[in-house]
Amino acid sequence: MALEKKKGGVLPPDGGWGWMIVAGCFVVTVCTRAVTRCISIFFVEFQMHFAKDYSGTAWIHSLVDCTTMLCAPLGSLIGNRLSCRIAVILGGFLASIGLVLSSFATSLEYLYLSLGILTGLGFALCYTPAIAMVGVYFCERKALAYGIAMSGSGIGTFILAPVVQLLIEHYSWRGALLILGGFVSNLCVCGALLRPIILKEEEACPLPVDSECGYDGKPSEVNGMLTGKVAGIKSEADGNVRCLQSMQEYSFLLMPDFLVLAGSFFLLATGCSLPFVYLVPYALDVGVSHHNAAFLMSILGVIDIIGNISFGWLTDRRFLKKYRNICYLLAVGMEGLCCLFIPLLNTFVLLIPFSVLYGYFDGAYVALIPVVTSDVVGTTYLSSALGVVYFLHAVPYLVSPPIGGWLVDTTGTYTATFFLSGFALISSSLLLFVAFIIRHCQRKQKNCLSEDPKLESCEGKQVDYYNSKNKDLTIIIPATS
Predict the structure, then answer these.
(1) Nearest of 432, 424, 396, 262 to residue 337 by alpha carbon
(2) What pLDDT shows up at residue 425?
(3) Helix (H, G, I), strand (E, B) or coil at 394
(4) Pairing of strands 474-476, 221-222
(5) E-assigned strand segments in 221-263
């Protein structure tokens, strides 16, 4: 399977088998992100069975999220070196085994390893390669394709939240985890759909040293074996080539625009997981029934779908295509504002608008994360860039739910936890907004210089500017990216 790549570069199909890639990525997001969200439904059962508090139980959810994001570069590496198909099939097997083993848990520490780390590792190997494949198959309709693919998270949450609650009631939490393990094994089927292609811009360059020849271009063999000197040269050359390839794969890390985007993603990850972890416990705390609390997650999931697809379709329109970053920061900022109003919402009826608004803006920005990343780094580096982007989510996903649980245990309310989420999301949006303003001012200043009749702009070259006082004055205008 690793060698099953088509010869010759092609243009992104923008359809055809690409829709099967979208379908596969859709199911991957259902089996990874939706299942991760629904783990919070098990919290009350875990607390009762193991007699633990909120902060101890929250480590399970945070470990799943953290491991999924921390190992995202590993998924990118396997997808780049072998194939996305192998990465997803292997990840599906590990995730399924982790959930099945979790059904036999005897302590929270056991769940930390089986459900938190093993299942999270499986999700990591599936998530990034599947998302990257959508970006390979689509160009003109990329945002719409990602909107449909990422809507699996919302649809999965809508369907799985009440189903998981029913499974817990009928088969206990152990039986529910066992059934989820069988369901997640469908990731292996999704992996089989990921047919690899090579784009024209990704066609491999020739190696600097022929792997079978010496310096003179002629094979150096003794009885069919490479001589020791040439074998050493070959090994050293192969090592240099691999090192050079690795450096090229991550050269985007030096781009200022990507660094700003990475900082925004880090702040985003600090706040975005808390509402999914604590919405159901908060609803139960204010007197909402178990079924209605699970229904809030279902509402959030349905509106999440609308946000995925509608924002994807809108940002593919010609008049919004160049403003995708602005659409992204608006979605994140509005999501943060929703969290600041949570202290006013203490009934099921009042929590419904929160689920609607939060779900819509969550779906909007989730669909745009790979799109804005692709706009910054390009399709060639998308897989590696997504690995780094999701890696940045790891530490916030690990520490923010336990911090939120500690705030609940300390204050006795969920207000501080939701405020932490809201301020983190708003800060993420403000960082991109400030960067956008700075770029706009720089662009305006550059345009003013180019319009000056006394100063002819010639990037990267010397421009002689003679004035009445000093005719030898030379100004050097450096090239800008």
Answers:
(1) 424
(2) 94
(3) helix
(4) unpaired
(5) 221-222, 225-226
The DSSP annotation for 233-296 comes to HHHHHHHHHHHHHHHHHTGGGG-HHHHHHHHHHHHHHHHHHHHHHHHHHHHHHTT--HHHHHHH
Identity at 183, one-letter amino acid code: F
pLDDT of 18-42, one tens digit each?
Answer: 889 999 999 999 999 889 888 878 8
Q: Are 267 and 427 in contact (CB under 8 A)?
A: yes
First-to-final CA distance of the chain:
39
CATH number at 18-199+252-439 = 1.20.1250.20
Whole-number mean pLDDT of the chain?
A: 79
What integer pLDDT is reported at residue 96 of this predicted model? 94
Q: Is 89 a residue whose pLDDT tops 90? A: yes
**Angle formed at CA 250 by CA 68 and CA 248, multiple of 5 degrees:** 140
Q: 């936890």: which residue's tokens?
A: 417
Q: Which pLDDT tens digit goes with each residue over 345-362?
A: 888 899 999 999 998 898
Contact of 328 with 365, CB cutoff 8 Å: yes
Give strand pairing partners of 221: 226
Q: Do 118 and 101 form a contact (C-beta atoms < 8 A)? A: yes
3-state secondary structure of 96: helix
DSSP string, 325-375: HHHHHHHHHHHHHHHHTGGG--SHHHHHHHHHHHHHHHHHHHHHHHHHHHH
